[in-house]
Amino acid sequence: MRTQVGIVGAGPAGLMLSHLLHLHGIESVVLEGRGRAYVERRLRAGVLEQGSVDLLRRAGVGERLHREGLRHEGIELRFAGESYRVPMTELTGRSITVYGQQEVVKDLIAARLAAGGTILFDTEAVRLDDLDSDTPSIHFRRDGRAEELRCDFVAGCDGFHGVSRGAVPEGVLTTYERTYPFAWLGVLAAAAPAVEELIYANHDRGFALYSMRSPEISRLYLQVAPDEDLAAWPDERIWSELRTRLETVPGWSLNEGPILERSLTPMRSLVVEPMRWERLFLAGDAVHIVPPTGAKGMNLALADVALLGEAFAAWYGQGRTDLLDSYSATALRRVWRAQHFSWWMTSMLHRLDRDDPYETNLQIATLRYVATSRAYATSLAENYVGLPEV
Ligand code: FAD
Ligand code: DHB
Known about the structure:
This protein has eleven helices and 20 strands. By secondary structure, it is an alpha+beta fold. It has two domains: about 5-70 and about 95-175 and about 270-345, FAD/NAD(P)-binding domain, CATH 3.50.50.60; about 180-265 and about 355-385, D-Amino Acid Oxidase, subunit A, domain 2 (D-Amino Acid Oxidase, Chain A, domain 2, 2-Layer Sandwich), CATH 3.30.9.10. The protein has an eight-stranded mixed β-sheet. Strands 8-2-1-12-19-18 form a six-stranded mixed β-sheet. The chain has a three-stranded antiparallel β-sheet with strand order 3-7-4. Strand 14 and strand 15 (about 210) form a beta hairpin. The longest helix is centred in the C-terminal third of the chain and has 28 residues, at about 320-350. The chain is globular. The two termini are about 40 Å apart. The chain binds flavin-adenine dinucleotide and 3,4-dihydroxybenzoic acid. 3,4-dihydroxybenzoic acid (DHB) binds next to strand 15. This is 4-hydroxybenzoate 3-monooxygenase.
């Protein structure tokens, strides 16, 4: 099998790249280890920056997003019995849209298949070869058989546990990393959201986040221990903990309902540099991870491939190598801005150490500063909605 750009992974990064290449008349094949139903149901991020929404719309895949996405102009911060709304749109002129990652994935798969694109599901890439030649290849397994995809370039969009990053020779990549001593227990509930905007809560018992997917479905998160056992969290315990951490404003209460799904997400910050080696280009979670507090993961993945799409277009269209050569450095500027913002939000909102009241007082002082300084609130808001140029 042969194509121009071989893409490993059908997450937001790989699918969007394949779609953008198609718009430029460049062929690609996407290899995905999981089945279509699995990737279309995988519950993950939910917040799209304005830049991501604009990118999806410009690429002609924003129709359902426009119809069903929930546009938000602010977020609420709750802490120490106080509450403050960050008026994001008033401060920045920009907004965010709540639209599940799996909906973005469904829209992109539909667009690729409608255009005759090739996505090979249940197809696991096992090895990348000849990345330092003009004809790199991806070895993969499909229906129990070993096969090979030859291409001009490989895009490694296969997430944190993928095979691509490991194909770079030892000594080339540098890893910067931080792990946090907690995880998020995330639930999806058949309960109408009690609010129209997201609530980020700093509480003595740990962080809580109130989000949503639709007028009928709530999405909620609780800070828990990294080795928490989900079996120890029956519905009533989850609701009780959410009530304690979120019902801190007089007269406000949660809407409860059956819990449809629950999962545990470890919290990690990671950057691997550079994002390119020879003819291998890495994008999204394959090279950088952020803790979800800043809602940046999916947005960064889309921003990476927007750059890659332009870079491949310049190479195939005009024989230019400049954008391919500058891809890693350009992408890393945004990556590090998001790393800082995600670390900052995480540090401000979670109980880092239950026995450190000094740390807690610093958090409350920071949150009060956001609530009283237009300059500081603007800094949070412009990072949250996404900076157009970094
Ligand atoms: P992915 O979406 O991970 O896509 C990679 C794809 O590659 C997957 O489909 C995988 O099956 C496939 N793959 C892997 N290895 C191979 C192989 N060898 N061969 C073929 N295919 C392969 N972000 C937030 O902002 N908020 C959240 O609440 C949030 N929750 C998350 C929960 C979890 C459990 C995880 C893992 C991430 C979460 N994120 C969240 C982060 C966000 O979802 C990611 O940043 C985003 O998915 C990155 O997209 P991607 O395309 O780079 O990678
Ligand atoms: C959601 C996830 C996030 O990580 C976040 O910061 C905000 C919202 C969500 O899944 O809705």
